# Entry
Amino acid sequence: MERIVIGRTGLEVYRLGFGGIPIQRVSETQAVETVLHAIHLGVDFIDTSRAYTTSERRIGLALKQTDKKVILASKSHSKTADGARADLEVSLKELQRDYIDLYQCHFVKDETDYRKVISPGGALESLKKAKEEGLIGHIGITSHSLDVLDRSLDDELFDTIMVCFSFVEPLAREKVIPRAISKNVGMIAMKPFSGGVIEKAGLALKYALSQPGIVVIAGVEQKDLFKENWKVFQEGQPLTPEEKKEIEEIQKRYEKVFCRRCDYCQPCAEEIPIQVVLGIRSMVKRMGEGILQKGRHREAIDKARSCTACEVCKDRCPYQLPIPDLIEENLRWVDEQLKSSGSLSN
Ligand code: SF4
Ligand code: SF4
# Structure
């Protein structure tokens, strides 16, 4: 099984890590069991976030039950120094640790967010202080925007970069990954299954792992699913010609429906967070139906109901996605879910 040093952090881990999103949607017992099982199989890199509700606490509980050494990564959504510091303190408490190996500025959406993070009073300032205090080992950045990550590589302020990477979202292969590797910035690939859009997990993992120089984090909530993922990693087989053909077919199928979360379609006159609405099915798959009841996903859905089908966004989308149609289709799907859970009357 291949190991890798995560760029300038010097941290050495297996190339397949554990992602902490899906364990939020199962019982605490199942979540802890899944994490422990992954560690038992050999996982030595776990990534989570303050934003993943119960995830940090559950990982902390699992780590209490094992002596195995695990490299831990977490993140803060906050763009301000005070907010990131407050998040870090909660992360340490939830994970039951006095040190986190890698702490990341989470979901730095665009240039405005990025500037906030790196400016005086921004999240980076307090994370640097936390590093001096010995609370964290290294500082990373995560974003769905390749432009933001590319820009962060110019500034060389972060030790690691976390990027979306899968065969329906392969652009980082050209744009960010090679530059990061040449600058010795650690590359962590998230969403190898594109948030559950790719149903063939084995194929998706093989593709992601076929890219050298990156750690791939795969999130699952069931022991057996992780076992299957780990087997793919253990076997270390390259993609066969048949599998490459299958990937091309799936890529074609998703070309005009899969939202790459780049936000080039913004701004929308109705302030609809388009990417959130287009990604709602995979978010429900990963986080559970509760997100349709309240919180930012519910707010996005409520806003989407005011879509005027003006098509301004459609003209801006580099992938020519039929955005108003996709919004309508997703709203229909949401209503079906709400109806079957009794939250929407007929
Ligand atoms: S079509 Fe709908 S989502 Fe797109 S810009 Fe117009 S109102 Fe916004
Ligand atoms: S709809 Fe198109 S432009 Fe908007 S975030 Fe998705 S892929 Fe990007």
User: Anything to note?
Assistant: Residues 268-270, 272, 274, 307-313, 323-324, 327 surround iron/sulfur cluster (ligand 1) (CB under 6 Å). The beta strands are 3-5, 12-14, 16-19, 45-47, 71-76, 100-105, 136-142, 160-164, 186-190, 214-219.
